[in-house]
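Subject: design request, 238 residues
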């Protein structure tokens, strides 16, 4: 196997003096979809916040694209090509879809590069082209999630972390978002996601991790985890 695009080694991190993650390790190879599942409070979001620099780990390190980014600020992590879509489909509600997408490219100077990124994003999400002058706050939850994801793609990231992309969406949009994740991988993106929709997340994943109580519990190919009797019983509702 080649060097992973992301390697998080034995991260111990938390809030204040309380450790939430205990030596958690995760890695992602270029071109993969990696899904992280586990019960509420397992530390999945905390792991993402630590990787992208919102939290500094107490120990362990994060290597991205061959560089040590442990403790590097989130905006600098983004400039290196690691994008993060936080939980809660956060958009600028008063801005149009197009303005939201342009905000995603605020670190990019070259106008032609921005135009090319917009074109690529519209190819993946044609509805955003149709709705480009609509204010994001007036769109449905699923459409806002597409805006949030598309905004992260505007910098042409080497890796995108998505925290609960399907949370709170109607069944139709849950299916649509999972389809879009697969399409993104096909278009050459590399993804790592956290999902409470565990079975679907593993079904689209090349590999998966189960976190529990801030520790690595299981890992393996998505299909293997899906078929594992313990994983099924404990995390997939039988
Ligand atoms: N900002 C915070 N301050 C203090 N504790 C937090 C904070 N965010 C999360 N936690 C705690 O960290 C633990 C893990 O939370 P989180 O990483 O959000 O879990 P998950 O995403 O797996 O549901 C929980 O016990 C949660 O209460
Ligand atoms: Mg979470």
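Subject: RE: design request

Done. Sequence follows.
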């Amino acid at each position: 196997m080649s060097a992973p695009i992301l390697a998080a080694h034995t991260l111990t991190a938390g809030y204040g003096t309380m450790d939430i993650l205990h030596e958690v390790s995760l890695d992602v190879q270029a071109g993969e979809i990696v899904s992280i599942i586990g019960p509420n409070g397992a530390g999945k979001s905390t792991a993402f916040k630590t990787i992208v620099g919102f939290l500094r780990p107490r120990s362990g390190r994060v290597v991205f694209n061959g560089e040590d980014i442990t403790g590097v600020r989130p905006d600098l992590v983004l400039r290196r090509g690691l994008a993060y879509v936080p939980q809660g489909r956060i958009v600028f509600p008063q801005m149009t879809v197009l303005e939201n997408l342009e905000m995603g490219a605020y670190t990019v100077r070259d106008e032609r590069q921005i135009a090319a990124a917009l074109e690529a994003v519209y190819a993946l999400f044609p509805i955003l082209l149709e709705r480009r002058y609509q204010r994001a706050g007036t769109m449905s939850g699923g459409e806002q999630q597409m805006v949030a994801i598309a905004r992260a793609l505007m910098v042409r990231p080497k890796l995108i972390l998505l925290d609960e992309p399907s949370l709170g969406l109607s069944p139709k949009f849950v299916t649509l978002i999972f389809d879009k994740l697969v399409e993104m991988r096909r278009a050459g993106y590399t993804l790592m996601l956290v999902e409470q929709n565990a079975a679907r997340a593993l079904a689209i994943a090349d590999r998966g991790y189960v976190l529990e109580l801030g520790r690595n519990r299981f890992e393996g190919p998505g299909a293997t985890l899906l078929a594992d009797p313990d994983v099924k019983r404990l995390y997939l509702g039988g």
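The chain is about 40% helix and 25% strand.
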